[in-house]
From TrEMBL:
Reactions accelerated catalytically: [ThiS sulfur-carrier protein]-C-terminal-Gly-aminoethanethioate + 2-iminoacetate + 1-deoxy-D-xylulose 5-phosphate = [ThiS sulfur-carrier protein]-C-terminal Gly-Gly + 2-[(2R,5Z)-2-carboxy-4-methylthiazol-5(2H)-ylidene]ethyl phosphate + 2 H2O + H(+)
Designated name of the protein: Thiazole synthase
Known role: Catalyzes the rearrangement of 1-deoxy-D-xylulose 5-phosphate (DXP) to produce the thiazole phosphate moiety of thiamine. Sulfur is provided by the thiocarboxylate moiety of the carrier protein ThiS. In vitro, sulfur can be provided by H(2)S.
Domain of life where this protein originates: Bacteria
Provenance organism: Alkanindiges illinoisensis
Localisation: Cytoplasm
Record's keyword terms, sorted: Cytoplasm, Schiff base, Thiamine biosynthesis, Transferase
Pathway(s) of this molecule: Cofactor biosynthesis; thiamine diphosphate biosynthesis
């Protein structure tokens, strides 16, 4: 069974109907002090070369590009190819991330380095990992690092588990975006627990700090991205789903369309599910009987 059929089965029949969307009109994506039109956020890892990286990112239409500061040269090594040559900061919002950090202290230091390298840039993606096997977030260290970074003036977009309580605590703390995983990083399994994503969205909608909820990790194909957006997520962040595709640039195009289609479907409001058939043609005004 496909991922799409799995998530849109009758068991999940209410997941798409988070609220009455009939009167919604789209607004820009607001993250902290910044405003964006694209709701697709992309990474820079696993491409075969910088040319492919640049082509895929441009095709995706993304405005926010996340970069693993500990693994990628953005000026630390002047004699090496610089990633910023294909994702210039004047065109994209660079989102430094703390990939590869397994404790709060190393994540905090990495964000400090990013701010120095990017001339005071304070928007960061915090991820503190629990182990090498699952790359699941260590929420204890994530909470600690988030508090320290916020107090130091950073705008923190935070990768976390799909635990609704932890997600809301991070939002209430002052994170500018909460980014629950759809499934394990790089797994391509899609949204394995859409019920929890729904709870996170409901909590965010009822909170005084209505920060954007952005699915981060696990997307494998376009239908996964569309499902996340149909649920009401503000955006989707992905890397491997594009970079590991057989044709990354073509997949980037597909993901752009999927995010846009999912967003429009959410705003339009899906039809109600019914247990029986309902004829689509008029039931009155027959020309003959």
């Amino acid at each position: 069974m496909s991922q799409l059929n799995t998530h849109l089965s009758s068991a999940d029949s209410d997941l798409i109907q988070l609220s009455d969307s009939s009167s919604k009109s789209d607004q820009p994506l607001i993250i902290g002090s910044r405003q964006f039109n694209s709701r697709l956020l992309v990474g820079t890892g696993k491409y075969k070369d910088l040319a492919e990286t640049g082509a895929a990112i441009e095709t995706s239409g993304a405005e926010i590009v996340t970069v693993a500061i500990r693994r990628v040269n953005i000026g630390q090594n002047p004699d090496q190819p610089n990633l910023l040559s294909v994702i210039p900061p004047e065109k994209y919002t660079i989102l430094p991330n703390t990939a590869g950090c397994f404790d709060a202290d190393s994540a905090i230091r990495t964000c400090m380095l990013a701010r120095e390298l990017l001339d005071g840039h304070n928007l960061v993606k915090l991820e503190v990992l629990g182990d090498q096997k699952t790359l699941y977030p260590n929420v204890v260290h994530t909470l600690k690092a988030a508090r320290t970074l916020i107090d130091d003036g950073f705008e923190v977009m935070v990768y976390t588990s799909d635990d609704p309580i932890i997600a809301q605590e991070l939002a209430d703390m002052g994170c500018v975006a909460v980014m629950p995983l759809g499934s394990l990083i790089g797994s391509g399994l899609g949204l394995t627990n859409p019920h929890n994503i729904r709870l996170i969205l409901e909590n965010a909608a009822q909170s005084k700090n209505q920060v954007p909820i952005i699915v981060d990790a696990g997307v494998g194909t376009a239908s996964d991205a569309a499902i996340a957006m149909e649920l009401g997520c503000a955006g989707v962040l992905m890397n491997t789903a594009i970079a590991a595709a057989q044709q990354p640039v073509l997949m980037a195009s597909a993901m752009k369309k999927a995010v846009e289609a999912g967003r429009e479907a959410y705003l339009a409001g899906r039809m109600a599910r019914k247990p029986y058939a309902a004829a689509s043609s008029p039931e009155t005004g027959y020309f003959f009987k």
